[in-house]
Design a protein that fits this description.
Blueprint: H1 2-8, E1 15-19, H2 22-50, H3 55-83, E2 86-90, H4 93-101, E3 109-115, H5 123-134, E4 143-149, H6 154-177, H7 184-190, H8 196-218, H9 229-235, E5 250-255, E6 270-275, H10 286-301, E7 306-311, E8 315-316, H11 321-329, H12 332-335, E9 338-342, E10 347-348, H13 361-372, E11 384-387, H14 419-428, H15 452-462, E12 466-469, E13 477-480, H16 485-503, H17 509-517, H18 519-529, H19 535-550, H20 562-584, H21 589-604, H22 606-618, H23 635-642, H24 656-679, H25 681-711, H26 715-727, H27 730-744, H28 749-758, H29 761-795, H30 802-808, H31 825-841
Parallel strand pairs: 3-4, 3-7, 4-6, 9-12, 10-13
Antiparallel strand pairs: 1-2, 5-6, 7-11, 8-13, 9-11
Bound molecules: uridine-5'-diphosphate-glucose and manganese (II) ion.
GO molecular function: cellulose synthase (UDP-forming) activity
Subcellular location: Endomembrane system
Membrane topology: Multi-pass membrane protein
């Protein structure tokens, strides 16, 4: 690496960083906002002191205080991302010449690709990822790929044997035609391949795909597919007792750079398939365990100083990425301290408005830029180039592993297929190898959290490593985002559990992190560790203002009070700044909105459930695993996703709190509007804050109205709602209907309201079923009241015209069927019908 730098001496800098223009204004705003937050907390304390009169008002004040304390804490942690964001640029051009001219100078790279389940992660996808990387513009003799298969699946090995044969054609094809999309799937999808060479390659690819998919579908490799002695030996490992959870190590060198050549006689990179040993009796630590096996196996085979880790779906989108990375790794000023260079996770195929908020721009782009100006971004699991040394202690505290061959400084001098190398590789891939070693605790990828990426990045930064965020205009990698709501929620639930595991360990960023990295980095990591506690304020704000509103209790300042302005400032300040960050980061308003909506949905579902599951695990009641996110695209589902249809898809307890909140908000919204319409200015002033919150949470309502009832025709869920409506909300519903009827029956609101409520077929069904009795009850009461009122008016001789009196008391139309106010006939008809119905029951 040093040789490389010397040879670039004198040319322009390999990389530059510039601080964001928003940094200064962010700091000023932070000061102002912090004062506002403190003032609000003071106001809360005051209210709390005043609300000792009744237990319920005390509880309400307390819950609001807790919610705002948590929001204030989260706000504080986000400030780390805003104090010093930087944007980096690299100049790979100044390096390009050197790299091609002096092959010997460039460092070797080991690439790790993890896969765990051939059904959720189709082998063809993994193969595409591997091919895109094998075809990097980099000397192939310096590249080695290791595929970790935690699924222990013969079809996956088969797919890679096929891929190796195809690569012999694909790599020279990419070189010759200067192909940019080096994942064949992406290339063939976006190029029409008119020239005959491309046609030929495409046919070859398609036929490989058919063979692989066929084998995957059958779940085993038929004899007709096994060609050579070597292949047959490899597949013999899959004996009858071989299961995914219990099997010996399988290591297969598929391509060996010392002898394998492509069709033009060029060297091909090493390609090694590794399925580590599994047994029912030992813990495997999921992906972290798989990566540690690869670190050891690769150390024995090549021991390249740079390691690229990729999830099976993260294919390369730019063949020149390695040159970019070398801009940092070859700079001796930073090289010795750089632990890793993280690229953002970007996803292909996200729909226009990103309805499930999968882009997660803040996590993958905005926040890392913020951390990059401090000590460097957190690790996000894929698209990351590691300095191998980072896995063995701090920059100035080398921790030597138990075998000299695993040391990052060990020089490999045996061919990868030599018996000694293979024997040792099998040994270090064994499931008991790590017992009584430092692996996972002080060495390698760290265990103890389901978000091993976050935890490992955090720990190595605590040890003193600096990290770098590299975000080129042309994304270096693309991955697959989950495109169904339940997948998103399950993924986020796993993250929530993993993050809490860190938050409540001795490595809590608030203590451990701050003491080792200073307050800003510590808070940045704390922001993630405590991510799931967002569910607490979200739940409080989704229910407390609503229930108090339904009970006619005012909990927020009146419009005329100065505190109201404070609330407005805090609300719009936070959301405004958030939107600004998002737009500056290249987002659109619609995507921001979708992101907000998902924030609410996440907070009320997976963060809540994640926290519960985490607590159960801590109490030893249950355990949790790594539920791999599906990367399979169902055609129908993709189509609907493409069209932007928000769907729940399946039934899941995850949706219950969400929909409960949606219904409560709907009821509260109607109730508030009615109260304000009736009560006039006073109520408006008093209830506006609550109304705003309810309307805002109506984002959820929007979702539930559109899709929930149509989609989730699931019995269990339906029961839950019925129950809920019946027990919790009967009174409320009665109130609402009563108000609605009394207030608005003269106009055509009844129709409108009932249309609104009964619009969706199934929704109507559900509501009608649930509230039929309540509805009838209410109607009876209303009629009684109306009659009573009418009676009174007639008694006091206040009435000259009976018809007018009926109107004044809120009963519909003229006797002759026409409308007094000239309403359209349809309206009248409808109303007649509803009147008839009620009359029958009366
Ligand atoms: O026992 C396991 C489980 C998973 N994986 C691999 O881990 C990767 C990530 O799994 P995925 O289901 O895609 O999880 P995501 O939530 O989408 O991934 C994010 O979050 C994970 C931590 O929860 C990180 O490991 C990932 O890098 C990061 O992209 C995939 O390649 C899997 O094959 C394994 O190798 N072994
Ligand atoms: Mn993933």
């Amino acid at each position: 690496m040093e040789a490389l730098l010397r040879s670039t001496g004198g040319s322009p800098p390999l990389h530059t960083a510039k601080i964001s223009r928003l940094a200064i204004s962010n700091r000023i705003f932070a000061a102002v906002y912090a004062s506002a937050v403190l003032t609000l907390l003071y106001h809360h304390l005051e209210t709390l002191a005043d609300s000792t009169t009744s237990i319920s008002s005390l509880l309400i004040s307390l819950s609001l205080l807790i919610a705002d304390l948590i929001l204030a804490f989260m706000w504080t942690t986000t400030q780390s991302f805003r104090m010093h964001p930087v944007y980096r640029t690299e100049s790979p051009e100044s390096l390009a010449k050197v790299v091609t001219d002096q092959t010997d100078c460039v460092p070797a790279m080991d690439v790790f690709i993890c896969t765990a389940d051939p059904y959720k992660e189709p082998p063809m996808g993994v193969v595409n990822t591997a091919l895109s990387v094998m075809a990097y513009d980099y000397p192939p003799e310096k590249l080695s790929l290791y595929v970790s298969d935690d699924g222990g699946s013969a079809p996956t090995l088969f797919a890679f044997l096929e891929a190796a044969k195809f690569a012999a054609h694909w790599l020279p094809f990419c070189r010759k035609n200067d192909v940019v999309e080096r994942s064949p799937e992406v290339y063939f999808a976006s190029n029409d391949c008119r020239f005959s060479e491309a046609q030929k390659i495409k046919t070859m690819y398609e036929s490989m795909k058919v063979r692989v998919e066929n084998v995957v579908e059958r779940g085993k490799v038929g004899d007709e597919f096994i060609t050579g002695e070597e292949e047959s030996q490899a597949f013999n490992k899959w004996t009858d007792g071989f299961t995914r959870q219990d099997h010996p190590t399988v290591i297969q060198v598929i391509l060996d750079k010392s002898k394998d050549r492509d069709i033009t006689g060029h060297v091909m990179p090493n390609l090694i398939y590794v399925s580590r040993e599994k047994s029912m009796t030992s813990h495997h630590h999921f992906k972290a365990g798989a990566l540690n096996v690869l670190i050891r196996v690769s150390a024995i085979m090549m021991n390249s100083p740079i390691i690229l880790t990729l999830d099976c779906d993260t294919y390369s989108n730019d063949p020149k990425t390695l040159q970019r990375v070398l801009c940092y790794f070859s700079d001796t000023k930073v090289e010795s301290k750089v632990g890793y260079i993280q690229f953002p996770q970007k996803f292909h195929g996200i729909n226009k408005n990103d309805i499930y908020g999968c882009e997660i721009k803040r996590l993958f782009v905005i926040n890392p830029q913020g951390m990059d100006g401090l000590n460097g971004p957190n690790h996000v699991g894929t698209g990351c180039f590691f300095n191998r040394r980072v896995f063995f202690g701090g920059p100035s505290a080398l921790l030597l592993p138990e075998l000299p061959e695993l040391s990052p400084y060990h020089v490999v001098n045996k061919p990868i297929q030599s018996p000694q190398v293979l024997k040792l590789a099998h040994r270090v891939a064994g499931c008991n190898y790590e017992n009584q070693t430092q692996w996972g605790f002080k060495v390698g990828v760290r265990y103890g959290s389901l978000v091993e990426d976050y935890f490992t990045g955090y720990r190595v930064q605590c040890e003193g490593w600096k990290t770098i965020f590299c975000n080129p205009d042309r994304p270096a990698f693309y991955g697959e985002a989950p495109i169904s709501l339940i997948d998103v929620l399950n993924q986020n639930k796993r993250w929530a559990i993993g993050l809490l595991e860190v938050a409540f360990s001795k490595y809590c960023p608030l203590t451990f992190g701050i003491s080792l990295m200073g307050p800003l980095m510590g808070l940045a990591y704390a922001h993630y560790a405590f991510w799931p506690i967002w569910s607490i304020p979200a739940a409080i704000y989704a229910f407390v203002p609503q229930f108090t509103l339904l009970n006619g209790v005012t909990i927020f300042p009146k419009v005329s009070e100065p505190w109201f302005v404070l609330y407005l400032f805090l609300f719009f300040g936070a959301y405004g700044q958030d939107l600004l960050d998002f737009i500056v980061g290249g987002g659109t308003f619609q995507r921001w909105w979708g992101d907000q909506r998902m924030w609410m949905i996440r907070s009320l579902s997976c963060f809540l459930f994640g926290s519960i599951e985490y607590s159960m695990k801590s109490l030893g009641i249950s355990t949790h695993g790594f539920n791999v996110t599906s990367k399979v695209l169902n055609e129908e589902q993709s189509k609907r996703y493409e069209q932007g249809v928000f769907e729940f898809g399946v039934h899941s307890p995850l949706f219950v709190p969400l929909t409960m909140a949606a219904i409560t908000n709907l009821a509260a919204l109607i109730f508030a509007i009615v109260t304000i319409l009736r009560g006039g200015g006073g109520d408006f002033e008093r209830l506006l804050m609550q109304l705003l919150i309810v309307a805002f949470a109506g984002v959820l309502k929007e979702v539930s109205e559109k899709e929930y009832l149509r989609e989730v025709s699931d019995e269990v869920l339906k029961e839950v709602f019925k129950e809920y409506l019946r027990e919790v909300n009967e009174e409320v519903l009665k109130e609402v209907f009563k108000e609605v009827l009394k207030e608005v029956s003269e106009k055509e609101y009844l129709r409108e309201v009932s249309d609104e409520l009964f619009k969706e077929e199934s929704e109507g069904e559900c509501l009608r079923e649930v509230s039929k009795e309540a509805f009838e009850e209410v109607l009876k009461e209303v009629f009684k009241e109306v009659l009573k009122e009418l009676n009174e008016k007639m008694m006091t001789n206040d009435v000259t015209d009976v018809k007018v009196a009926i109107f004044d008391c809120g009963l519909g139309h003229n006797r002759d069927g026409s409308s007094k106010h000239g309403e359209p006939a349809t309206v009248v008809k409808r109303r007649e019908k509803s009147t008839e119905e009620t009359e029958n029951t009366d």
